[in-house]
Amino acid sequence: MKTMFWKENKLFLIDQTRLPDEFTYFECKTYKDVIHAIKTMKVRGAPAIGVAAAFGMALAELAGENLEKTANEIKSTRPTAVNLFWAVDRVTNSNSALEEALKMYGEDVKTNKAIGKNGSVIIDDGDTILTHCNAGALACVEYGTALGVVRAAAEDGKRINVICDETRPLCQGARLSVWEMQQEGIPVRLIVDSSAGYLMQKGEVDKVVIGADRVAKGGVANKIGSLMVALAAKRFNVPFYVAAPKSTFDYENSIYDVEIEERDSREVLYFGDCRVAPEETEVKNPAFDIVPSDIISGIITEDGILKPL
Ligand code: MRU
Q1: Is 286 helix (H, G, I), strand (E, B) or coil?
Q2: Mean pLDDT of 13-21
Q3: Where are the domains of the chain?
Q4: N or C: at which end does the chain have fewer Cβ atoms within 10 angstroms?
Q5: Residues 207/153, Cβ–Cβ less than 8 Å
């Protein structure tokens, strides 16, 4: 399953806001459509955002738009995942946006398979692996990073059980990771986010593997809730791994200087279409948090398992 594909000068993205109930594609004819898809999270997950952004640049190039202006507009869609900036800069410095985007599309799959292969080494037969959010095929072009490690371990014949945090507020764990594991036939259970610590305390989790939006000096930014999972893992001696491609590494900034996206209060006030708090409630809704380097066991990349920065 590919999260996106390019056909007849258009980009087609699986509309992730409709999963798991509906499997439909959102058609992007212009770079503005790509911007809309990223902002509304029809496409999400750091590597997928990066490749979609590259195709957005290709659409702008085909339409004869001003590429510098387009690059700035695309970069302003979401601030935290560094892949977006990496992808737009890479395309900007190339001779052909479309050729470069197609190259990145192919590389993404190879990179994830390498991450999976390198990560499978840390997974034992019979392991229960807890993951947060969705760092699966849907967050990339195909295969996934954290769920790529799970896939590779399963392909190596290891019997794996997966626990997915639901990942409030938008429930990428419940809607997307559970769905992916079910498609794959890998045993999966869903928990509310606040169960993770208790299950680790009871010895029911062997390893945690999550993805990353940015790896930088001092730690890793990933979906809100990752920090609490990491702290519990540290307390109960559960190895805590991050799986991420090198395109998610930012060697220039401290992780504490990175802008953490603040999203709409509606995401917290409502559960789907159902309001769960009084209308006028003031909300704080950071989309990501930071796991400090010293509580990360290793970063699983296409080049091997690395120490955090
Ligand atoms: O807000 P999202 O759904 O884009 O957040 C996604 C995550 O936090 C993922 O864990 C991260 O991008 C890694 S995806 C391989």
Answers
A1: strand
A2: 97
A3: 4-110, 121-306
A4: N
A5: no
Q: What is the pLDDT of residues 226-237, one digit of tens each?
A: 999 999 999 999
Checking if the pLDDT of 78 tops 90, the result is yes
pLDDT at 1: 82
**Mean pLDDT estimate for the chain:** 98
Percent of the chain past pLDDT 90, that is, above it, reads 99
Return the CATH fold of 121-306.
Rossmann fold (3.40.50)
Q: Is residue 17 within 8 Å of 156, Cβ to Cβ?
A: no
pLDDT at 147: 98
Distance between Cα 213 and ligand 1 center (Å): 6
Distance, in Å, from the CA atom of 212 to the CA atom of 221, rounded to the nearest integer, reads 6
Answer for the pair 300, 243: CB distance below 8 angstroms, yes or no: yes
**Do residues 300 and 119 make contact, with C-beta atoms less than 8 angstroms apart?**
yes
**Helix spans in the chain (H):** 31-39, 46-62, 67-75, 82-92, 97-120, 146-155, 172, 178-184, 196-201, 226-235, 266-269
> Is the shortest distance between the CB of 308 and ligand 1 below 6 Å?
no
Query: Which of 166, 176, 213 to mutate for ligand 1's pocket (most ligand atoms within 8 Å of CB)?
Result: 213
Architecture of domain 4-110: Up-down Bundle (1.20)
Where residue 250 falls (left for φ over 0; alpha for ψ -120 to 50; beta otherwise) is: beta
- Two tokens, residue 28: 């992007």
User: Which whole number is the average pLDDT over 16-34?
Assistant: 98
* Residue 138 Cβ < 6 Å to ligand 1: no
Secondary element (H or E) of residue 12: strand 10-14
